[in-house]
Amino acid sequence: MASAAASPPPGPPPDPLAQALLAGSPQLGEDSFRRVVEWAPSAMVMIDNAGIMVLVNAQTERMFDYGRQALLGQSVEILVPERFRQQHRTFRGGYFGNPQPRPMGVGRDLAGCRADGSEFPIEIGLNPIATEAGVMVLASIIDITERQRAQQRLESALLEKTVLLNEVHHRVKNNLQVITSLLNLQADYAADPRLKAILTESCGRVKAMALTHQLLYERKDFSRLDLGDYLERLVQAIRSSYRASGDRINLHLALPPRPVLLDLERANPCGLLINELTTNAFKHAFPGERRGEIVISISEGADSLISLSVADDGRGLPADDELAKGSSLGLQLVALFVEQLHGTLSIERNGGTRFAVRFPKIFVAKESP
Ligand SMILES: Nc1ncnc2c1ncn2[C@@H]1O[C@H](COP(=O)(O)OP(=O)(O)OP(=O)(O)O)[C@@H](O)[C@H]1O
Ligand SMILES: [Mg+2]
Fold first, then answer.
1. CB of 317 shorter than 6 A to ligand 1
2. How many Å lie between the centroid of ligand 2 and the Cα of residue 281?
3. Domain 16-143 has what CATH class?
4. Is residue 309 lining ligand 1, measured as CB closer than 6 Å?
């Protein structure tokens, strides 16, 4: 950029202010400086140490609705609402004592005052400029009326969405509860014990799903759910449907010290999986009057893998070929849920049965080739 001293730009003769400015900013030509300030998208107001406006740009005229001549030579306080003028004077004095480039009034709501006395919200950046005429301050002013409106619109849209989501979860939960009541009723009327059992099992599965929606609704956090919290409630529900086993079967839930948070997409298969494995343990592991314990545990590893396990010290799983012959749904569902969680399943059969599932806390989608 050509310096003003080396090649004076064409146009009107330089005024003393511009020359003073150029002394503090040798790399910027006078003309360039004027153009930068004049066409800046924000209002630019330069004041001297007495608070007198020595330079304003076109945007200042538009923003505050004054002609340029009505501003130049006036105190900057005419742009400040009357009730803040005294405070502004004090602030200005303080600023000149230690001028640093910084935003003005951080954390406070600042307002500008138009020629007709109307007010509007603004944001101000302050820049001291050393000139031969002493330190001046160049204030850059932005009208934030539109930004505040947009923010208010966003906030009310967010509130509306939250209310709606709340309502959706509430309704889904209610509808699922109606389904469980219907299944329960049908189970009560079913004469065939096999059919009764199938209906009761289905009822448990629907309850496990309803519970996720109930927790999301209760906690008012729609993005994630505390897995421990969820399993505690689920286990309570399973325990009450197997009341008949009394204290013959102990059910214990081991939770990690820190909560494990999961989104709904994962919480549902997790809950359904635990539901299948725990009901299986109640149903099959302790035939007759056999006593024992079921332990459900969750842990989160440093590798960001979540481990879930359901273990019992019952009679043990039948041999694989025996299992393969059966046409039951439960273990097929378990395999499906593990797949949904992008996890792995391992089964241990020493002195009972232990199903262990590990899945990533954060699912990273595979990139398509
Ligand atoms: N914890 C366990 N201990 C002993 N045997 C088990 C255990 N879990 C499952 N089984 C055996 O595996 C079989 C298959 O289980 P699966 O859950 O698929 O079917 P189910 O429980 O019989 O019926 P449903 O389809 O209603 O779940 C069971 O019938 C049972 O013999
Ligand atoms: Mg089962």
1. yes
2. 8
3. alpha beta
4. no
